[in-house]
Write a structure and sequence with these properties.
Helix content is 6%, strand content 35%.
């Protein structure tokens, strides 16, 4: 028996579209959520939000990115298409047979043994000598990440989940929390 409710983080939505934990959709039922997308360009994310089991469902993969573009972003000549890459980071654990594992009892904090990006352990992306835009979401239950390039090079932070910064920031690492 599967229950669900969709919650979109960071958007300004009417209460009936917010995906509150008590607004559960039962098997055989449907619900249409309406998002106006009238906000500035943003990298948002959505996830299942059922009361008491959100952590299990997000851990199992019921989450994704929701990208809103606007004319201000379009005028900046930012990377688009295959050069605009959403990355959802999570930590997970697996059994010896490769099945997803999560404690059966409640823990205040749980850290998985493996770091995943977009559902893959040890992901790899062949890149061209071009600028890329990576839109990061930390969908872990508790783990924080301190991200940097393996060669120590700097990179530019141009936005947060609240939209574009007033000016790009050149940084060598980025700390993100769930």
């Amino acid at each position: 028996r599967v229950l669900g409710v969709t919650h979109l983080h960071g958007a300004h939505v009417a209460p009936q579209n917010d995906g509150l934990p008590e607004d559960t959709i039962k098997p055989g039922e449907t619900k249409i959520y309406t998002y106006a997308n009238g906000v500035q360009g943003s990298s948002l994310w959505y996830h299942d939000h059922v009361m008491g089991v959100t952590r299990y469902n997000v851990y199992a993969g019921l989450a994704g990115t929701y990208l809103v573009n606007d004319p201000a972003e379009a005028s900046l000549n930012l990377p688009t298409g295959k050069y605009d890459v959403p990355l959802m980071l999570q930590d997970k654990s697996f059994t010896a047979t490769g099945q997803l594992w999560y404690p059966k009892f409640w823990l205040p904090v749980f850290y998985g043994d493996w770091i995943m990006a977009n559902g893959k352990v040890w992901p790899f992306q062949k890149v061209e000598k071009k600028k890329y835009r990576y839109r990061l979401v930390n969908a872990s239950n508790h783990r924080n990440f301190d991200l940097s390039l393996s060669n120590g090079a700097s990179f530019q932070l141009i936005s947060t989940d609240g939209g574009l910064l007033s000016t790009p920031q050149t940084i060598k690492n980025l700390k993100i929390s769930p």
